[in-house]
Amino acid sequence: AVPKAAARGAFILFEGVDRCGKTTQSTKLVESLKAAGVNAELWRYPDRTTEMGKMINAYLQSSLDMDDGAIHLLFSANRWEKRAAMEKALGDGVTLVVDRYSYSGVAFTAAKEVPGLDLEWCKAPERGLLRPDAVLYLDMPVDAAKTRGGFGEERYETGELQERVRTHFRVLREDWWTIIDASGTIDDVHSKCAAAADEAIQRCREGAELARLWD
Ligand code: FDM
């Protein structure tokens, strides 16, 4: 008999406005998956370690200025340069827990100017990237997020812009996303994230295929 191919890993994405708890929750999810014997890794975008990532980092820290369209394409290219490696890892059975992806890319760029670059323009370079198996959207009003120690020093960390980001996330939302109220306790939010992650991992074990954005 032909040996059955090993199950692929799941692509589990965290999205939400700044300070909603994505970093805490994605870290915690990877820890709990590993403790349960799941081969899991934490990835994040922008990936600031690559050459493009270094430019993005300089832009976010305001030491580099760039046209809104150009920086949008650079954020997107930063996902494209990692696409093959993501696909390989998933194929090797690694579950990838990812902190931000294309949805942040679109929501942030479209929120920068009013009127700015429209959603369809922003989505175009993302088409063909991997579609997550699950999106865990940590929902939180911007005012509540702001009280969590306030926004930092980087570009985009203002209440007004984050409000528009949240509005765009609402438009981008699809019915298969898991919307999680992020105002609960860390453990409470974690258990909801873990349940949604388990369900996605199970679907991948049962043969769910990797899809692409935005089909
Ligand atoms: N951001 C993030 C974008 O503008 N486009 C993108 O494609 C991505 C992935 O970069 F303000 C924004 C969102 C945030 C900033 O993200 C850096 P982290 O998660 O705070 O490092």
From TrEMBL:
Class in the EC hierarchy, top level: transferase
A single cellular component GO annotation: mitochondrion
Organism name: Micromonas commoda (strain RCC299 / NOUM17 / CCMP2709) (Picoplanktonic green alga)
Domain called Thymidylate kinase-like: residue spans: 14-192
NCBIfam families named among the record's database cross-references: DTMP_kinase
Pathway as given in its UniProt record: Pyrimidine metabolism; dTTP biosynthesis
Record-stated family: Belongs to the thymidylate kinase family.
Pfam families for the chain: Thymidylate_kin
UniProt EC number: 2.7.4.9
GO biological process entries: dTDP biosynthetic process; dTTP biosynthetic process; dUDP biosynthetic process
Protein name: Thymidylate kinase
Molecular function as annotated in GO: ATP binding; dTMP kinase activity; nucleoside diphosphate kinase activity
CDD domains in alphabetical order: TMPK (cd01672)
InterPro entries: P-loop_NTPase (IPR027417), Thymidylate_kin-like_dom (IPR039430), Thymidylate_kin_CS (IPR018095), Thymidylate_kinase (IPR018094)
Cited HAMAP family: Thymidylate_kinase (MF_00165)
Keyword annotations of the record: ATP-binding, Kinase, Nucleotide biosynthesis, Nucleotide-binding, Transferase
